Known about the structure:
There is one protein chain. The protein is α/β, with parallel strands linked by helices. It folds into 2 domains: 209 residues, SGNH hydrolase (Rossmann fold); 36 residues. Helix content is 41%, strand content 11%. The protein has 11 helices and 7 strands. A 5-stranded parallel β-sheet has the order 6-4-1-5-7, sandwiched between helices. The protein has a two-stranded antiparallel sheet with strand order 2-3. The longest helix is centred in the middle third of the chain and has 18 residues. It is globular and about 60 Å long.
Amino acid sequence: xxxDEVYKKFIQKEIPDSVKEFDTLYIGCSHATxxxxxxxxxxxxxxxxPYRTSKLMDQKWKSIALSGHGIFAYATxxxxxxxxxxxxxxxxxxxxxxxxxxxxxxxxxxxxxxxDYMLNNKDTTLHAYVQPYWWCFxxxxxxxxxxxxxxSQSKLDYLRHLQDFDAKFNRTRDTGPGPDNLWIDMSYRYIxxxxxxxxxxxxxxxxxxxxxxxxxxxxxxxxxxxxxxxxMDWLGDKRDEVLTLxxxxxxxxxxxxxxxxxxxxxxxxxxTEYY
Length: 275
C-alpha cells in the first residue's frame, strides 16, 4: 500500500459521537505543552495550561501544543481539520506567540498524529511535535545540519548564511513603509474567516507581544489578562520567579496562575452547548 493510500485510509475513519462532545479546541505553542522545571525541562505533560483551565471550568477540551511554531502552523491545523471533517468545535482558543515563526515539517506525520488524537476521547494536551526540516530559529537550523559540514570554514560559512537569513526574516517594522511578514496577518484572517463561516466562537490572547504586531493582530486579542496586552506583561515582576530560565516556559506556579486567570476571563465568554 502506497503512502497516499495509507493517508486516505486513516482520514476516512468515522468520528465517534463521544468525541464530538468536546466543545472547545485550544491551539498554542510550547507554552501549552505542560509544566516545566526551572531548567526548562518538561516534568508534567498532563498539567498544561489548557488542560488545567478546562478542569477549573469543569469542561473537556481538545488542545494542541505546537512547540516552536506560530500562527501559520495553527492555520494549517485548522485547514487539516476541515478537510478531515473534524472541525466540530463550538469554540476555538488561540494562544498567540512571539512572531514571526515559520517552520516546515513532514505534514503527513503531523496530520496523522492530530487525526488520531481527535478520534480518541482523551482531554489531555497533544504535544504535536515533528522534527522540522527547516527552522526559522538559526540555532536550531544550524544544529539540524551541522554534521553535513566537515570543516570549520564550511560550518562558519553556513552560520553566516543563516545569520543573513535571520537578519532579513526578523527585521524590525522600521525598515519599510509597512509591516513585514504579512503571512502572519493573513493566517489569522484565515482562521477568523473559517470561524465565521462555521459559526465557531474565536478567542485569542497573546503570550508575548512582538515588534511586528499590527493593529489588526492587536485587535484580535479579545481575552485580556488584567489590563495588560500579554501574559508576559501580566506576570510582570513575577516572570523570573515562575517561568523557566531559558525559554520562559511555565513552571507549576505559572500554570496555576495563568490557568486561574484564563478561566476567570473565559467564564463569561465561552459557549458550552454541544452539537
